[in-house]
Each structure stands twice: as structure tokens, then as C-alpha cells.
Design goal:
InterPro entries: ADH-like_C, ADH-like_N, ADH_Zn_CS, ER, GroES-like_sf, NAD(P)-bd_dom_sf, Zn_alcohol_dh. Keywords: Metal-binding, Oxidoreductase, Zinc. Belongs to the zinc-containing alcohol dehydrogenase family. Its cofactor is Zn(2+). The chain has helices at 39-46, 93-96, 126-129, 139-159, 175-186, 198-206, 220-227, 242-250, 275-281, 296-304, 323-329, and strands spanning 2-5, 14-17, 28-37, 60-68, 80-82, 120-123, 131-132, 167-171, 190-195, 211-214, 232-237, 252-260, 284-287, 314-319, 338-343. The chain is of the alpha/beta class. The protein folds into two domains: 2-133 and 310-343, Medium-chain alcohol dehydrogenases, catalytic domain (Quinone Oxidoreductase, Chain A, domain 1); 149-287, NAD(P)-binding Rossmann-like Domain (Rossmann fold, 3-Layer(aba) Sandwich), CATH 3.40.50. Strands 3, 4, 5, 6, 7, 14 and 15 form a seven-stranded mixed sheet that branches. It has a six-stranded parallel sheet with strand order 10-9-8-11-12-13, with helices on both faces. It has a two-stranded antiparallel ribbon with strand order 1-2. α5 links the parallel β8 and β9. α4 packs across α5. The chain starts with a strand and ends with a strand.
């Protein structure tokens, strides 16, 4: 099969023919229909989240079932499906309680095992993880849900319990930030988006943000507090860097909730945070990572019901050979929207 291989940190991905994946006994092999290109893939590409080389990146995928393992009971060849990027075992105590994202036996395509920058991918633990795509959902949109939309959905509805009428401050206007904006608006919240790229802020306005703040021109936390009349009820950090994490905490009103979505890596693994604000404001800080597979129906129902249109997230449909250029773009302020691989021959 054709795949994009990472052979060295920051090296151009090598387009190569590699063997098709074997089918796990409890899993399936998918023909990949589309795969998103995410900042988390950039962390792998740069070596900030190191993997064993050579390696196939890619964790935001959907596909058609081509092969089914003997232990799988819920899926057959020809099913169109999607899977979370955290593939839980389905049988440990955490999984049995519905907390698959903290499964100690999880598998991570694109990180701990070969990913979906390829024509096919093996998906273990299929019955515990994969979900059927709604009839007619475009593969590019399904892949764009990837880790950005699903993680934002988990952050807003599970971790922060965002309520209608509340203010949400989104720090970082990339794919996760725009996903949080669209979902929060569908949930009845008001949203202010913070970024340093004017084009991203203009795009956020276009997508329905109630207000935007350019953190390169003003104190972002102070601006959010002024816009929201005392601070946001919920703040989302969507980059994984110290500056936006501190700003997210400081933008909250008392009893506010902050969710760390951005993955800290490299120099940002350890941050100096304003714990005085946490203490005095009685704030709640949450971490979140991924979404359990069983929560896909709630997200699909929101989309199918016409309550949210997520297609504006898709900025570019590209070929497999363009993946390196898209990863390089994350070195600086990336353009609005997300790129999705839809052509595995190109």
C-alpha cells in the first residue's frame, strides 16, 4: 500500500509502498477514505513527541471496513466507520466505567502504532471503539472531526459542562479552537476567540464569534474580562503553550472552569501558572484528551439535526504527497481551517 513515512525529525515524509497491515484478532482493517493533518502530527514530525522510526503518522481518520478479525462481532466488510485516536481495550475497570480515554492499555494510531497517512490502517479493539458514520456524511468532514472536534466536544460537554448563556473564551483559533467556537454556539453559549493572527480572528468572526481579541495587540485576559463583564465562565486552551494557558486562567471569572486541550510539549511541558488566581477565584482546572468512542452518537445527532455546520473547518483537501508542506505550516502561525488528506494516490 502507499503510505507517507517519517524517517527523521523534520525530514520530508517519504512516499513509499509498504506492506498492508495485518488484521488484529479483535480488530479490523480499514481502507482509509480521509485523514486529517493535526498539530499533534506536527509534534511527532518535529520529535517533540518522539516515536520509533520509520513511522506512519496520522490519527484523524475514517474508512471502509475491508477485513474483520475473528473476535469482532459488531462490524462487517463494507461498513463506513470512524474511530477515536485513543483506542481503548474495552475491558479494564476504567473502560467499564466509560472512561476509555484513560485506559491503561490504550493503542494510539499515529503515535504508538502505524497511523493513517496510508491507504489502509489496522484498528484494534474494534467493538469497543469504532462508530458507524451517518449515511451521507462526507469522508473529509468525518476526518476533520478527528481529534479536534471530538476533543472539543468532550471538553465542553463533559469536563466543563458549558451551559447556555455562559461565556466561553477560546485561546487559540486553530482547528480545536474553531471547533470549540462552533460547538459552543450550538450549545447556546457566547464565545470570544483569542489569537495573534488577524486572518484567524476574522474567520472566527465569520463563523459566529461574539467577539475576538488579538493577543499581540492587547492584554488578552484583561480584554476578555472586559468583554464578558467580569470574565468567562469557561476558558479553553487550544495550543499547549505557557502564554495561552496563563491567559486562559486569568480570563476567568470567579468559580470559572478552564480546560487544557492543547498538548504541552518540549519547553512547555512545565509551566509557571498563576496559582494565586486559581486560589482566590476558586477556579477549576481540567485536563482533557480525546473522546470515548461511545460518545460519537451525541455529536452525530447534533450535526444531523442541523444544529451545527462543521464543514467550514475544512480549508484544504490535499493529496498524500502534500502532508509534509501542511506539517511545516505549523512551524509558524498557520492559516485558518484544517487540511484533510482525501487523495492517497496524489
Amino acid at each position: 500500500m502507499r503510505a507517507a513515512l517519517l524517517t527523521g525529525w523534520r525530514a520530508p515524509l517519504e512516499i513509499a509502498d509498504i506492506p498492508d497491515p495485518g488484521c488484529p484478532a479483535d480488530g479490523v482493517v480499514l481502507r482509509v477514505l480521509a485523514c486529517g493533518i493535526c498539530r499533534s502530527d506536527w509534534h511527532v514530525w518535529t520529535g517533540n513527541d518522539p516515536v520509533a522510526l520509520p513511522h506512519v503518522p496520522g490519527h484523524e481518520y475514517c474508512g471502509v471496513v475491508e477485513e474483520v478479525g475473528p473476535q469482532v462481532t459488531g462490524w462487517k466488510s463494507g461498513d463506513r466507520v470512524i474511530a477515536p485516536f485513543i483506542l481503548a481495550c474495552g475491558s479494564c475497570p476504567d473502560c467499564r466505567q466509560g472512561h476509555q480515554t484513560i485506559c491503561a492499555n490504550q493503542a494510539l494510531p499515529g503515535f504508538t502504532r502505524p497511523g493513517a497517512f496510508a491507504e489502509r490502517i489496522a484498528v484494534p479493539h474494534a467493538d469497543a471503539n469504532i462508530a458507524r458514520l451517518p449515511e451521507g456524511m462526507e469522508p473529509a468532514l468525518a476526518a476533520a472531526l478527528g481529534c479536534r472536534v471530538t476533543t472539543a466536544w468532550q471538553a465542553l460537554t463533559d469536563r466543563a459542562a458549558l451551559a447556555p448563556g455562559e461565556w466561553l473564551a477560546v485561546h487559540g483559533g486553530g482547528g480545536v479552537g474553531l471547533s470549540a467556537l462552533l460547538l459552543a454556539r450550538a450549545l447556546g453559549a457566547r464565545v470570544v476567540v483569542v489569537d495573534v493572527v488577524p486572518e484567524k480572528l476574522a474567520y472566527a468572526r465569520q463563523l459566529g464569534a461574539d467577539a475576538v481579541v488579538n493577543a499581540a495587540e492587547t492584554d488578552a485576559a484583561e480584554a476578555v474580562r472586559e468583554i464578558t463583564g467580569g470574565g468567562a465562565h469557561v476558558a479553553i486552551e487550544a495550543l499547549g503553550i505557557a502564554a495561552t494557558t496563563v491567559a486562559a486562567i486569568n480570563s476567568l471569572r470567579k468559580l470559572g472552569r478552564m480546560v487544557q486541550i492543547g498538548m504541552p510539549a518540549g519547553e512547555h511541558l512545565h509551566m509557571k501558572l498563576p496559582m494565586d488566581a486559581v486560589y482566590a477565584g476558586q477556579l477549576a482546572l481540567y485536563g482533557t484528551r480525546g473522546m470515548p468512542g461511545w460518545r460519537y452518537p451525541s455529536l452525530f445527532n447534533l450535526i444531523e439535526g442541523g444544529h451545527v455546520d462543521l464543514t467550514p473547518l475544512i480549508a484544504r483537501r490535499v493529496g498524500l504527497s502534500a502532508a509534509t508542506d501542511e506539517l511545516r505550516a505549523f512551524d509558524g502561525p498557520a492559516a485558518p481551517g484544517v487540511a484533510v488528506i482525501t487523495d492517497f494516490a496524489g
